[in-house]
Amino acid sequence: MTGDILSFHIFGQVIVVLNSIKVSKDLFDKRGDIYSDRPVIPILDMMKWGWLVPFARYGNFWRQGRRLLDRDLRPGAVTAYRLMQQMKARVLLTRLLASPDEWEAHIEQLQGELILAMTYGYEVQGHNDRKITVARQMATLSSTVTFPGCLLVNDLPFLRYIPEWLPWFSYKSLARLGHELGEEVLHKPMEFVKESMAKGTARPSLALKNLQETEKLSRTEREKAEEAVAGALASMYAAGTDTTVSAIMGFLVAILLHPDLQTTAQRELDAVTGRERLPTFEDRSKLPFVDAVCKEVLRWRPVGPLGLPHSTTEDDVYEGFFIPKATLTACRGILHNPEVYPEPDAFKPERFLEADGSLRDDPTLAATYGYGKRICPGRHLVDTTFFIFIASLLSVFNIERGKDDDVRHVEYSFTGAGISRPNPFRCSFIPRDQRAEELIIADTMAR
Ligand code: HEM
Predict the structure, then answer these.
(1) Is the CB of residue 304 below 6 angstroms from any atom belonging to ligand 1?
(2) Is any atom of ligand 1 closer than 6 Å to the C-beta of 398?
(3) Nearest ligand 1 atom, CA 385
(4) Which long-range contacts (CB under 8 A, 24 or more apart) does 441-447 make?
(5) Each residue's pLDDT tens digit, 383-403
(6) What three-state secondary structure class fits 361?
(7) What pLDDT band is residue 1 in, cutting at 50, 70 and 90?
(8) Which end of the chain has fewer beta carbons closer than 10 Å to its terminal beta carbon, N or C?
(9) What is the pLDDT of residues 240-298, one digit of tens each?
(10) Is residue 369 within 6 Å of ligand 1 at its C-beta?
(11) Is the CB of 377 under 6 A from ligand 1?
């Protein structure tokens, strides 16, 4: 086949990889009715995780959850979370000032806190809060067990029937652990919201809004609707935390490699804030360089280089190629195509800028979020979260490498479910000067 479409066989399955935006759009967007299923992953079935939207089969349950996510995460709706995003970005500054060595834990924790506050109005109580630790365990487990080649049972489904007394071959205890975690992530936060509603203490959240909407339904309809709400909201943690954290880590590596870009971005930020205050969303239109850095991070080291596999529900023919019922994935090749992005391995934010310094529209970058009916519903949220975290960090910290660190060789590996993340690296967050410290402290006191 051509370089735009590659195919190979693995364990009797046909894998088709799409390397061109045109082909991906032609198939996933225009023929979405038959290209929007997901491959069956036996271990997820064993764990009874059918409610997890990213892996849900193309059908009514997925449609219901997806409708909710599309509605509540559309551009107009995510503006409601700006204050919360800004506040969490500033909490990160406070924590980095207090304990800079724990930077990685702070970044992970705050992304989790942001999602739990948005979805359930839940304010996390420290690093060991059960709601966050269990959601994190589930997110890690879900990405590990779905990673291609990680579990034999996914390729040889008959292994699911091996009894537990054959421990080397049985997947039953793993399935039970996954099921227990899944049930807790799915139900406990919803119970928390219902209890808060009964006490009159519920904070604004997606769960509250959606539960209030189901109140007018009949009992059976309400139970069904609540199930979809619970699944969609719990999916946000699984799909939205590790991905955003990975993007922030990619940003840090890019800055460690290119300290000059940090200076340019800081100059732009200073001109807008006058160093009288921390940046806000209102400043965004005047910060095209910072925005271009965010875009280049997503292109340079895509968070999901392989995307999530779509599966066809019937055989198809595309430009003379026969495409059987198969697993398809669109890959990093699109964002690293030298004809679209010359010197694709170089980190160059200016790709996203016009000659006059304004931001250039680039439809190809959307590939980072997938395609068609399964395109990432969280993309508008990511866009704003990523921007405010990056702008806030750069405004007050110099991000620097240790004296003997060699960041040229930070390798990326998959954390699971196709999420790519830099391997551990060292990074120092040094307040730019006394003024920077004062800004962080003043904001902390005002909170
Ligand atoms: C840098 C951050 C992120 C990236 C790069 C990213 C990328 C992706 C990609 C490539 C897909 C698969 C699309 C496809 O199948 O064609 C996806 C699916 C999904 N994403 Fe994201 N995502 C990010 C953050 C988020 C966030 C913050 C949320 C929610 C709060 C989210 C929720 C989801 C969900 C629920 C799906 C499954 C959609 C479905 O199967 O219908 N993502 N994402």
Answers:
(1) yes
(2) no
(3) 27
(4) 441/97, 443/90, 443/93, 443/94, 443/278, 444/90, 444/94, 447/87, 447/90, 447/91
(5) 999 999 999 999 999 999 877
(6) coil
(7) very low
(8) C
(9) 999 999 999 999 999 999 999 999 999 999 999 999 999 999 999 999 999 999 999 99
(10) yes
(11) yes
Q: Please, which residues have CB within 8 angstroms of residue 336's CB and are 6 or more apart in sequence?
A: 344, 345
Confidence of residue 12 (pLDDT cuts 50, 70, 90): low
Query: Could you tell me the residue ranges of all domains in the chain?
Result: 5-446
Distance 372 CA to ligand 1 centre (A): 12
- List, for residues 107-124, the tens digit of each pLDDT value: 999 999 999 999 999 999
Instruction: Give 132 Cα–ligand 1 centroid separation in angstroms.
Output: 20
Q: Is 371 helix (H, G, I), strand (E, B) or coil?
A: coil
CB contact at 8 A, 89 and 447: no
Q: Is 376 annotated as a binding residue?
A: yes
pLDDT digits (tens, 9 = 90+) for 142-165: 878 877 777 877 877 887 877 777
Nearest-atom number in ligand 1 for the CA of 66 is: 41
Q: Which of 243, 251, 421 has the most ligand 1 atoms within 8 A of CB, as the residue to mutate? A: 243
Q: In whole angstroms, what is the distance from residue 23 CA to residue 321 CA?
A: 12
The 8-class DSSP code of residue 28 comes to I
Strand blocks (E) in 153-284: none
- Ligand 1: nearest atom to the Cα of 28: 16
Residue among 29, 58, 369 whose CB has most ligand 1 atoms within 8 A, to mutate: 369
Ligand 1 pocket, residue 308 CB under 6 Å = yes
Q: Is 314 exposed, middle or buried (0-12, 13-18, 19+ CB in 10 A)?
A: exposed
Residue 141 — pLDDT band, cuts 50, 70, 90? confident
Share of the chain above pLDDT 70, in %: 97
247 lines ligand 1 (CB under 6 A): yes
Structure tokens at 373: 């009916």
| CATH number, domain 5-446, options 3.40.50.360, 1.10.630.10, 3.40.50.1820, 3.90.79.10 | 1.10.630.10
